[in-house]
Every structure is written in structure tokens, then in C-alpha cells.
Amino acid sequence: MFIIFIFSTIFLIWGIVEQINHQKRVNSIPIRIHVNGTRGKSTTTRLIAAGLREAGFKVLAKTTGTLPRIIFEDGMETPLKRRGNP
């Protein structure tokens, strides 16, 4: 029983540290734009990213859906590989 308590405590502390580190990384991004809706999110995301890139902003975009992709600062796209079952 003591071993379960120790492992639970370790995992709890690890989870808290991970949450704090994640929040620091998220907060280091000065502007975040969330695109929501039923249809056209990938196209809208690409258009917003292209417009901001043309305006001189450093932009990283991510599309989800059937073909998830990361769109880098230079406009290059890389497919995202999902873990687990399709």
C-alpha cells in the first residue's frame, strides 16, 4: 500500500510540474488565434497564416482533420503523424 502511495505522489508531482511547464510555453506565445467552426477551418487557418506572414509576423499554423499539417514560418507544410488508431 505504501508503494502505491509513493508512486501516486510521484506521478501527481510530475503532472503538476508538466502543467506548469506547459503553461509557461503557452504563455510565451504572444498572440494565439483559434479558428472554430464546422467547415473551412483548414482553409481559414492557411489564409490567416499567409496574411500574417505577409505582414511580417512569425507564424506557425496547425491544421487538423483528415490530413493534419503543421505550416511553418516559411510556408512549408509537414504532415502530422498521429499516434494510435486512425
From TrEMBL:
The lineage of its organism: unclassified sequences, metagenomes, ecological metagenomes. One of its GO terms (molecular function) is ATP binding. GO terms for biological process: capsule polysaccharide biosynthetic process. One of its GO terms (cellular component) is membrane. SUPFAM superfamilies: MurD-like peptide ligases, catalytic domain. This is Mur ligase central domain-containing protein. InterPro entries: Capsule_biosynth_CapB, Mur-like_cat_sf.
